[in-house]
Structure formats: structure tokens, C-alpha cells
Design brief:
The chain has seven helices and 13 strands. The chain has 290 residues and is of the alpha+beta class. Strand 3 and strand 4 form a beta hairpin. It starts with a helix and ends with a strand.
Amino acid sequence: MKKAERRSLRRIRNGICAVMVAAASWNYLASYGAVAPPLSWLEREYPQYTEITVPQNDASAAEAGAAAAGQEGYGEEELPVPEILSWMIWDVPHIYQYDSYPTGCESVSAVCALRYSGADISVDTFIDKYLVKGSLGENEKGVLTGPSLDDAFIGDPRTVHGCGCNAPVIVRAAQQVLEGTDSQVLNLTGTGLETLCREYVSRDVPVIVWATIDMRAWTSTITWEDQVRGDTVTFYTAEHCLVLTGFDEDNYYFSDPAAESEITGYSRESVEAAYEKLGKQAVAILQGVD
């Protein structure tokens, strides 16, 4: 479907209905694989889902901007920027990770964003062909070592013994997927959520973000020595990757691989805290011109 057609369809869908987020539960195992022995199960509480109302796109902001354009006294670069209070990208794909990729939230989120941009790719192909993977093991001194999270996904995302990876790994993989196209992969790490919503989501560009499962304030970690640089690598066992697709005054909304529902909302406060904890990591894919 062409970008223009998809935008038209999206506008028609705006404001149609409220979505009930289904109650779901799952167990999350934080572990590392390969040579090192796996960690034990981590017992998790049930997610506290509540009924949410999916936001309507804020047409008033666009109308205000158009009105301002007709006022005298404003130069071309002096027009006031209207505030957009709510927005939802309706047709971002959703894939439930726990059927086949229990620790593969980064790969699943990347594939959802890539498919939205027009790429024809499966999670299996992304993992097997494009995702750089590494493992942990003890060196001759008995010290646990392995790659940096910026350099590789640690473990196997198809098993419960995988860990995760940071934004640079996903950026490089997505760039390889899109090689030869006009699409761009942007590493937006360090960008605040308000800016991501204003500059990307409200322009129908979903954003892959790193946070925690259920936006919980968990602090359990695994550490090892970077086998190249010698630095200490810290992995948060509650690390989670998901796709930011909407917002309103109370919540941020996601295509969350850990939830069976296509749209999952979390409070702004909880998302901002989890996003900050994981280093404000974010990646966006800009579609090429049709």
C-alpha cells in the first residue's frame, strides 16, 4: 500500500473505538547462554493492565497551524508551532514474541518497524541473516567475558537463555536490511520522549525504544567484562524493547512484543522512568520517497 493511501486509511480510522487491553501474563527468564551456565527463573508479578481509551489524532493542532498561516505579522519561519496533544499510528504491525522469540524483543520490534516502512522481512530472517550474536564465557582467570551490548546480541533470542542488545546493534542490522533503498535508519539515542512524539510519532513514524518489562522499576543485573575493551558491561534483566506508536496527555502507546494486544498503553510517568533507566535508547526508520 502506498504511503498516501495508508495515510488516508489512517485518517479514516482515527477516533473509531476504544481498545480493551487484554489481561496477559507470562514468565520472563533472565539468563545468559553459550558456555556459561544459565541463570535461574525470575518470578514476575502479573502485569497490571487496565482499560485504556486509544487516543484520537489531534486534528485541532493542524487546524491551528493552518489558521496561523493566514495571519498577518508572521513570516514564513515565524509561524507558531501548535501543540499536538494526542496521536496514534494505527497500522504498525504487531508480533507476539513469546510464541517463538522469548528473549527476542529487539528483533521483533525491529521487524515491526521495518515492515511498517515497507520492508518484506520475517523475524527469523532478521535474526539469522542480519543480527550479530555473541556469547559469554569464562576466560583463563575465571572472569566472565563477552561482547559489549553495543556490538552484539548476547545469547540466542529464540531461547529463554538470551539477554539482549543495545540500539547500535539494531541500527546496523536494519541498515543492512534496507541497503539499496531510500529509507534511513536513525539512532535517536538521547532524545526525550516528548521530542520523539512531536518530531516522529505525530508524523506517522513509529520509534523503537528501550525500556523495561511492564515499565517496572526492576534493578536486577548481570555483569561481565567486555572482551575487547575490558570495561564492565551491565545488562538489566528487565530490559525490554518495544515500538512507540502513540501518545495522549496521560499515556504512551506501543506495539509491545510482550503483550498479546496490538496496542498497549502505559502511564507517561512509568515510561519516562524506564526509558531513562535504559539510557534513552531509540531508533527510527524513515521511509524512502514513493
